Description:
Keywords: DNA-binding, Transcription, Transcription regulation. By secondary structure, this protein is an alpha+beta fold. It has 18 helices and nine strands.
Amino acid sequence: xxxxxxxxxxxxxxxxxxxxxxxxxxxxxxxxxxxxxxxxxxxxxxxxxxxxxxxxxxxxxxxxxxxxxxxxxxxxxxxxxxxxxxxxxxxxxxxxxxxxxxxxxxxxxxxxxxxxxxxxxxxxxxxxxxxxxxxxxxxxxxxxxxxxxxxxxxxxxxxxxxxxxxxxxxxxxxxxxxxxxxxxxxxxxxxxxxxxxxxxxxxxxxxxxxxxxxxxxxxxxxxxxxxxxxxxxxxxxxxxxxxxxxxxxxxxxxxxxxxxxxxxxxxxxxxxxxxxxxxxxxxxxxxxxxxxxxxxxxxxxxxxxxxxxxxxxxxxxxxxxxxxxxxxxxxxxxxxxxxxxxxxxxxxxxxxxxxxxxxxxxxxxxxxxxxxxxxxxxxxxxxxxxxxxxxxxxxxxxxxxxxxxxxxxxxxxxxxxxxxxxxxxxxxxxxxxxxxxxxxxxxxxxxxxxxxxxxxxxxxxxxxxxxxxxxxx
Length: 473
């Protein structure tokens, strides 16, 4: 205790006020001068061991009350001020500490008010989603980050860009890769633009996947990336250099509201173009039909990852040579959503994707295994879903592995065209009954329900308790 300086001015002031004392009266009881007490209350002097013992003896207070833990309040306040609505008023850590120390009740009130606001926002979001399912478009939207705007735009539109697909096939014709696409793209970068690709160790580039140095014309990639992800990063660079006009034209049509959203949108289109370069439309679509969309066969044939081929099958919508209209969803084991896309847009109104009974959540218990399931929505619509975990960049020994899971789905009517449909065709097992999301689902007695529905009043019968954690009428 002698080594740790304790600055507890605001807490000492609260104790003085609780006892109705002036600084002079309290200083006299503690045996110190009023000016010294004033310095302590303004956090310009620490509490000494002798003064701590005197305080506990005179006012019968707990020592922990003086030391006080503001960590929880600090974290909650940081969450409040990280909201986009308050982005311009983000205080520093010291200011938050002062707020938490000097006015803990007011700080707790701010946190409580913010959580009520978030709850109301969540309910409005659910109601907006419900209105959208019924064909009504809300005119007022909540505060959104640029990334939210970009996600919403790309999730609603068909995941197919004809101009990019044509340009990617022309590029393949030009570079004529025999087997090693990575070397062919590296050679193209060096020959056409003087760009050299270098793989850097973790200690040199600890926080980046890739970095393009315009001065030395070198593209640096992290050794943490798998060979598949390294190939995609090279293909992204190629796409930005080779398809700049097509990317800009597509971006212009999306009409994003901010420069940050446009920057993110450009990256998303470049990422799309990278997949088109790695898996050219004509060759990939023909191979997919022959393999009956066996994702493992396709990823081996094109030397790509499962995640990359799962993205690619949602892009096959060229008129005259379209494929099965797949959609996909990627989440982590906490349920955070990373990506949603679909050949015809992600089917939010029909499928939802927020049900805890989907096999994408069960995939985390069986890493690397493909789980196939037939699911049925409350309105009778049925879908075939394929789920599997994905591994992120290679971590060090003391780092937790980043693992997500991807769900690829389509209408059950396409099951005969897909190899995974054989597992559910003619099966006596009924489809798993799911809903769009707990707040929009009215299935009674659901053991997996995580939230009550917005559309029904809560069950208040004291004599009856249902199977669900949230009863409703």
